[in-house]
């Protein structure tokens, strides 16, 4: 299968690219700039182009059977109005341009596996959420809903669309865990606020496995929660991380006031959360390598 990936140079994209080429797929990574010396697995190539704007790169999209859209600016930053627009545009504009380019695939079997996020659901306390749960109304929920709507436009061309709603991706070289681990190693890995907010998470290898599973199971479409079956409270995550790193948590929680003062609206999001379950994957028979937080963290920090 010929597969185009946006966001393929990120820590999730690197793992997924490695697995795809190992299974014999031809992978094209869309990147804004091709850097000399950047390692690339055999069977993968680069395509230069900025997916947030239309351009010559779009002509190459129709040569691929599948598009995997991982692109999007990190949400782990203080949300100024300018940065919120960057979060939105990096997702909406990229997806819109990809879908427009996929018009050339009409009449041929084509798949779009497009990233979304569990932020789609908004905040519901202890309520269990699955793919049937409605969208929220906060900033991230609104962005996710618009993001998914843009991806679904590919259905007009007969494209199978899967909306991969990511939880917090756990990996050693990127994402939230990298920052949390750095703090924990200095005995600063305290819970945030009450510590009772839910964290729906996924190990980076399980996430890559999910994409491989979705490529094989073509009957699955629409929203799919890409989260482990065991969401945890923020306090449990902090304590488990401290245990695995040998740095037990002993400081009091970071106050909600301080989190909001430092991080603003993004800080408020960290003090809430979603309790999300991967119902579709479970019913389809997907097996997680790392179903619990402790198993995931042990693998990430002790695999070497």
Please describe what this structure looks like.
With 304 residues, this protein is of the alpha/beta class. The protein has a domain at 2-169 and 202-227: Rossmann fold, CATH 3.40.50. 37% of the residues lie in helices and 17% in strands. It has ten helices and 13 strands. The protein has helices at 11-22, 81-101, 139-152, 175-184, 204-216, 234-245, 256-263, 265-270, 279-284, 293-302, and strands at 2-6, 26-31, 44-48, 66-69, 111-117, 128-129, 160-166, 168-170, 198-199, 201-203, 222-226, 232-233, 275-276. It has a seven-stranded parallel beta sheet, with helices on both faces. A two-stranded parallel sheet has the order 6-13. Strands 8-10 form a two-stranded parallel ribbon. Strand 4 (66-69), helix 2 (81-101) and strand 5 (111-117) form a beta-alpha-beta unit. Helix 2 packs parallel to helix 3 and helix 6 (234-245) runs parallel beside helix 10 (293-302). The longest helix is centred in the N-terminal third of the chain and has 21 residues, at 81-101. It is globular and about 55 Å long.
Give the helix level as a range of percent. 25-40%
CATH class of the domain at 2-169 and 202-227: Alpha Beta
Q: How many helical stretches?
A: 10
Distance between the termini: 32 Å
The helix/strand order is EHEEEHEEHEEHEEHEEHHHEHH
Largest sheet: 7 strands, parallel
CATH superfamily of the domain at 2-169 and 202-227: NAD(P)-binding Rossmann-like Domain
Radius of gyration: 19 Å
Structural class: alpha/beta
Query: What percentage of the residues does DSSP assign to strands (E)?
Result: 15-25%
Strand count: 13
- Unreliable stretches (pLDDT < 50, length at least 5) are none
Mean pLDDT: 89
Query: How would you describe the shape?
Result: globular
The name of the CATH architecture of the domain at 2-169 and 202-227 is 3-Layer(aba) Sandwich
Sheet with the most strands: spatial strand order: 3-2-1-4-5-7-11
CATH topology of the domain at 2-169 and 202-227: Rossmann fold
């Amino acid at each position: 299968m010929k597969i185009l990936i946006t966001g393929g140079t990120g820590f999730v994209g690197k793992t997924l690219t490695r697995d795809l080429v190992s299974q014999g797929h031809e992978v094209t990574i869309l990147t804004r700039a091709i850097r000399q010396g950047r390692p690339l697995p055999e069977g993968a190539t680069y395509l230069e182009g900025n997916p947030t704007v239309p351009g010559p790169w779009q002509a190459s999209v129709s040569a691929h059977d599948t598009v995997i859209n991982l692109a999007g600016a990190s949400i782990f930053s203080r949300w100024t109005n300018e940065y919120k627009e960057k979060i939105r545009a990096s997702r909406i504009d990229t997806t819109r341009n990809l879908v427009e380019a996929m018009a050339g695939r009409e009449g041929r079997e084509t798949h779009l596996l497009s990233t979304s996020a569990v932020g789609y659901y908004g905040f519901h306390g202890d309520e269990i959420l699955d793919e049937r749960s409605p969208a929220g109304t906060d900033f991230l929920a609104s962005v996710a809903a618009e993001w998914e709507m843009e991806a679904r436009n590919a259905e007009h061309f007969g494209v199978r669309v899967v909306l991969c709603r990511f939880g917090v991706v756990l990996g050693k070289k990127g994402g939230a865990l990298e920052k949390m681990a750095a703090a924990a190693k200095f005995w600063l890995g305290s819970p945030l606020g009450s510590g009772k907010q839910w964290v729906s998470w996924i190990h980076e290898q399980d996430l890559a496995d999910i994409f491989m599973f979705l490529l094989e199971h073509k009957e699955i479409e629409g929203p799919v929660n890409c989260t482990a079956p065991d969401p945890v409270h923020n306090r449990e995550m902090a304590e488990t991380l401290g245990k695995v790193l040998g740095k037990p948590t002993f400081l009091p929680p970071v106050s909600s006031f301080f989190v909001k003062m430092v991080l603003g609206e993004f800080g408020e999001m960290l003090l809430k959360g979603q309790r999300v379950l991967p119902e579709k994957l479970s019913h389809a028979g997907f097996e997680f390598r790392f179903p619990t937080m402790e198993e995931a963290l042990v693998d990430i920090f002790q695999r070497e």
